[in-house]
Specification:
Number of domains: 1
Number of strands: 2
Helix content: over 70%
Length: about 270
């Protein structure tokens, strides 16, 4: 029953916020759809996002399929494909959520898209939530494709899918936050790929993504950075019959928070002056 306040105006009570929540949900779904359409209508983006990681893991499979043993000391007691399937999957998530997002945001800011978008009623949190969900969706497809190629080369499926899911979601969110943070430091879109790769390539290589690192000192250093903890957290359910790697997930979450704080402090919607 509708109540009436002292001024004679019907009071809507707690149901008042429901239309607003429904409106936010519709805006979020619309933004996710926009990001998905923008992505799928860009053939070059699809090729580098999906085809390149699959091609890499397929090449590794062809190289190691004839000579792999079940226990190789070089791969810490794993076969080559047991090692590379989760690490290449981790690299694909890094590329989709960090590198691609940072470059896209820098390009949109430089072209004035972000400035015009900021002038609309679309809340900033919905815009970035749409980007996050889009990146997670792309990452899930990427990881599924790589796991599929791995099973073709007799790589066992993960034993703890819950750990894989949580690691993937946390990694995607953290790398997205870092991507927005790095985008806030890029002055123009022409410099974006160079800045992004300047940060990504050293991290990928010292973290053992493309070949195992047997240096204890280097592993200790890389273990405090975001990529190696993500690699290790993805590797455990695939190859070690282990579940959640809480220490690695904690380090990854800290880097995500740092990236988010940098983004909040430094992100600008308008193009930066040259």
């Amino acid at each position: 029953m509708t109540t009436v306040d002292t001024a004679g105006t019907p009071a809507t009570g707690s149901g008042e916020a429901r239309p607003e929540r429904n409106g936010d949900l519709r805006l979020l779904l619309h933004q996710i759809r926009y990001e998905q359409l923008s992505f799928w209508r860009n053939p070059q983006s699809m090729v580098f996002t999906f085809v390149l990681p699959v091609l890499i893991i397929a090449i590794f499979g062809a190289v190691f399929s004839g000579s792999d043993s079940d226990s190789d000391p070089f791969f810490f007691g794993l076969s080559g494909m047991q090692y590379y399937t989760p690490t290449i999957a981790a690299v694909s998530v890094l590329g989709a959520c960090y590198a691609q997002l940072a470059i896209v945001l820098a390009m949109r800011r430089q072209s004035g898209i972000l400035k015009r978008l900021h002038a609309t009623p679309l809340p900033a949190w919905i815009y970035f939530a749409g980007l996050l969900v889009h990146c997670v969706m792309v990452s899930v497809i990427d990881v599924a494709l790589i796991i599929g190629v791995g099973t073709f080369y007799d790589v066992p499926l993960p034993t703890h899918w819950g750990a894989v899911a949580v690691t993937l979601l946390l990694g995607a969110a953290s790398f997205c936050a870092m991507g927005v943070g790095v985008a806030s430091l890029i002055r123009n879109s022409e410099a974006a790929p160079a800045v992004v790769q300047f940060i990504q390539f050293p991290l990928v290589f010292i973290s053992g993504s493309y070949f195992p690192i047997h240096s204890g000192v280097l592993n200790d250093i890389a273990g405090l950075l975001p990529v190696k903890p993500f690699n290790d957290a993805m590797l455990a359910p695939f190859a070690q019959n282990a579940g959640f790697q809480w220490r690695e997930l904690g380090i990854l979450a800290v880097w995500g928070v740092l990236g988010a704080l940098l983004a909040v402090r430094r992100f600008r919607w308008n193009p930066k002056p040259e």
